[in-house]
Amino acid sequence: MLYFSFDPAAKLGCLISMKDVIMSDSRRCWVASFTGIFAVVALLVCASEGLNSEGLYLLKFKDGISDEFNYLGNWNSSDQSPCGWNGVNCSSDPKNPAVVSINLSTKNLSGTLSPSICNLVNLVVLDVSFNGFTGNIPRGIGNCLRLEVLYLQNNLFDGPIPVELGNLPYLTELNLCNNDISGPIPEEVGKLSSLVRFLAYSNNISGPLPVSLGNLKNMRIFRAGQNVISGSIPSTIGGCENLAFLGLAQNNLVGNVPKEIGMLKSLTALILWGNDLTGYIPKVIGNCTNLETLALYQNNLVGEIPGEIGNIESLINIYLYMNGLNGTIPTQIGNLSLAREIDFSENSLSGEIPSELSEIKSLRLLFLFENQLTGIIPDELGSLKYLTKLDLSINNLTGPIPLGFQNLTQMLQLQLFQNSLSGTIPRELGLHSKLWVVDFSDNYLEGRIPPHICWNSNLMYLNLESNSLNGNIPDRLRKCDSLVQLRLDGNSLTGSFPSDLCNSANLYALELGLNKFSGPIPPEIANCKRLQRLDLSNNFFTSQLPSEIGNLPQLVSFNISSNLLTGRIPPEICNCLMLQRLDLSQNSFVGSIPNELGTLSQLELLLLSENQFTGYIPAALGNLSHLIELQMGGNLFFGGIPAELGALTGLQIALNLSHNCLSEKIPPRLGNLILLEILLLNNNDLSGEIPSTFGNLLSLSRCNFSYNDLSGPLPSIRLFQNMAKSSFIGNEGLCGGPLGDCNGKSSLSSMQPSLNTIITGVAAAVGGVSLVLNVILLYIMRHRLAELVFGISKANQRQRLTKPKDSTTQ
Known about the structure:
Blueprint: H1 8-22, H2 29-48, H3 53-62, E1 65-67, E2 88-90, E3 99-103, E4 109-111, E5 125-127, E6 132-136, E7 149-151, E8 156-159, E9 173-175, E10 180-183, E11 197-199, E12 204-208, E13 221-223, E14 228-230, E15 245-247, E16 269-271, E17 293-295, E18 302-303, E19 317-319, E20 324-325, E21 341-343, E22 350-352, E23 365-367, E24 372-376, E25 389-391, E26 396-399, E27 413-415, E28 420-424, E29 437-439, E30 444-447, E31 461-463, E32 468-471, H4 475-478, E33 485-487, E34 492-495, E35 509-511, E36 516-520, E37 533-535, E38 540-544, E39 557-559, E40 564-567, E41 581-583, E42 588-591, E43 605-607, E44 612-615, E45 629-631, E46 636-639, E47 654-656, E48 661-665, E49 678-680, E50 685-688, E51 702-704, E52 709-713, H5 718-722, E53 733-735, H6 747-751, H7 755-790, H8 794-801
Parallel strand pairs: 3-5, 4-6, 5-7, 6-8, 7-9, 8-10, 9-11, 10-12, 11-13, 12-14, 13-15, 15-16, 16-17, 17-19, 18-20, 19-21, 21-23, 22-24, 23-25, 24-26, 25-27, 26-28, 27-29, 28-30, 29-31, 30-32, 31-33, 32-34, 33-35, 34-36, 35-37, 36-38, 37-39, 38-40, 39-41, 40-42, 41-43, 42-44, 43-45, 44-46, ...
Antiparallel strand pairs: 1-4, 2-3
């Protein structure tokens, strides 16, 4: 069917001319004949001035597109040709230009892709990438027989890859990545004999890889990662003789890495990480002598790392981590003179770290952590002057930290934690490099913290916990403005609280527990505005907890347990509304618990045991709906247990109210704590019965009601029936379960000694004590006489023979 389009002015001119001719003298035949001929010519001329067929096809293509920013606004039906339209490029033939390229990339277009586009028989390039197109890729795309480049990436296309794509003999580049395409890659892809680049990563493609891939002799790049492709890698992949990049990461591939990979002499990148591949790394991989990146991590590969990898002298990056590889690291690894990054971490490698690694002078990253490596860290590694990241953690390494590490000027990240390293930390560590992460925790290191470890003010994370370090925190480290985390717990460090650290605007974790720090916690702690974790437990801090602790609005975890602190809990601590863990246990705090603690709605752990708190337990604690552990034992609380504690339905780890002076009845509402595992109410003055609602406490694994004044039958809880009587001792009126029948004599009463037995025991004890006192008195009199005769006491003798204690080493 022919389509004509007229310009309105031209159309009007044509009609006027025809009218004038018709209105002429109709009686003249020759004039009539001339008029007819003129009308036909006029129509032809008008038709020739309209939009050509390619423009009409493009307008139909446009009908399915939503153009928010009117990028296609100049696609005008009044034009003769679309060759000047936005995104449209035509051939250079001046007589008959044809549309050869459409580029609509990144124009915020949406809608569907019309198959009418393939009526452009000369179309070579179609690029609609980085838009919002939806729906299926039209099957009619297979009619674009001259198409060489098809870019559909970064849209919202779904549905399958149309098998009709296999009809495009000249297609060299196909990019479908970052869509929602599903279904398998069709076998018809193997018919694309000209294909050079196939990109379909980040979709929902499933099914096995097509066996026909081996037919693609010209293919250089095949990338289909981040899909759900299953099955094994077909052995026919060896037929892709020009393949340079094979990317199939993050799929569900199984089976072995095919040995035919060794046939790909042009391969520069093999990216197969994040699958379920099994078996060994094939030795023939050493034939891929142009390989630059080998990424096989996060699979289930086993066996040894083949020494043939050392033949690939072009290798730059080799990532084999998170597999099940075992055996030793091959010494041939030293042949990889161009390597920059080597990561063999999280395997089961054994043996020693080969000193041949020091031959890789360009090495920047070496990760061997979480293996079973033994022996010492080779001193030769200290010669790798470009090394920036070294992680040898979680192994069985022994010996000292190589002294040469302090001279590695490019070093940024040095992690050696969870080994058995000994000796001292190199004194000049940090002086010559801009270290930002240092972790030597869980070793046997001794001596002092290097004084220059933050010399370049770049250090963000320092973890030296669980060693045997001593001395003070160096001045330079105290003033390290870049610090984000400082973890020094579990050493023998001394000195006062490092107030200067609070001048750092970045510090959010300070952990100094299990050391020998002493003195008061200064008011300057208020300057640690960003602090989230503060652990000062198991030290010798004294005096009162400063009210300025309430100026830490981001504090999440605060542990000051096992110190020598006194005084009351400052009510300002309730300003720390982000608190999740608060541990004040094992100090000498006095006074009552502030009611305001009940406003800390994020609190999960509240540990107040082993202090000298008095007063009532605040009912407001029942508002702490996130609480999973409440420890208040070993204090002087009196009054009843607040029934509001029964609202703590998330309480799981423990509720400990033991060793206080609590009285009255146990609230039945405590039976609502159905997740509770440990309940300790012993050594109080509680009375009445154990509530029957405790039958709901099916999660209980341990409880203790001993030494109260409880009575009545035990609730029918399976745990109670199997518990030892010692959990109920000291309650004469309790019966049932292991305590015997409530109708008979309670077994607890039989456990109470008779009066005669008590009298007999006391008399025997008094007699024994008298005898011991007589012996001691005789001993003192004899030795006092010797002192008078010889003029010397044992105390003075001991004083001369014992060296005075050095207070700095305590």
